[in-house]
Design a protein that fits this description.
By secondary structure, the protein is an alpha+beta fold. α2 packs across α3.
Length: 189
């Protein structure tokens, strides 16, 4: 506590608690969390926790991930996302926003959108995140860049006979029989 890691009014995270510092006493630290609850943390508990001060620098970097279809040119998607970011008033122009390819996922190549907000508060963070998601999604739609939903490919092994999809209407069988492992004559009632 002697190092003064925060001041009254700072937006902090102390262990599992996040909010604004409202009071610092010789015995405890009080904060108002993002749900409007007041939390009292004994100083010894504060000293043994990691403290993240989101106010001290005067700016905060945020990250949003978005997936693009494997058929999309990643350079084109990066350029479209970056152009969308640079047009937003809710984020800082310096440091400049970035768009980076970060990993291959099951159904998509993942881009990470990095951008900064000035004078960070939870409201500014949420608003900036909201407009980034909205505007990048709209830009991708205009450019025909698909944001895929999770998908799975089913493949039957040839050596085991693969698998069949049975359409109940075309097979002429009642629906219950098409899923039964035995025929209707083999079942005991």
């Amino acid at each position: 506590m002697l190092s003064r890691p925060f001041a009254i009014g700072d937006w902090v995270r102390i262990g599992d608690h996040e909010g604004f510092i409202t009071e610092i006493t010789i015995n405890n630290v009080r904060l108002r969390n993002l749900d409007g609850e007041h939390v009292v943390l004994p100083n010894e508990a504060v000293n043994n926790r990691t403290i993240i001060n989101r106010s001290i620098e005067g700016k905060l970097r945020l990250r949003v991930e978005v997936g693009i279809d494997y058929h999309v040119d990643p350079d084109h998607a990066e350029a479209v996302a970056l152009e969308a970011l640079t047009e937003l008033e809710e984020i800082m122009s310096q440091p400049a926003p970035q768009v980076l390819l970060v990993r291959f996922d099951d159904s998509a190549v993942i881009l990470e959108l990095r951008f900064w907000v000035d004078k960070p508060t939870p409201q500014r963070k949420w608003r900036a995140t909201q407009v980034v998601i909205h505007d990048v999604k709209a830009a991708f739609r205009r450019e025909g860049i698909k944001i895929p939903f999770p998908q799975r490919e089913l493949m039957g092994r040839k050596e085991t006979g693969g698998f069949r999809v049975v359409d109940d209407e075309l097979s002429g069988q009642p629906e219950a029989d098409s899923y039964s492992p035995t025929s209707s004559t083999d079942r005991s009632e």
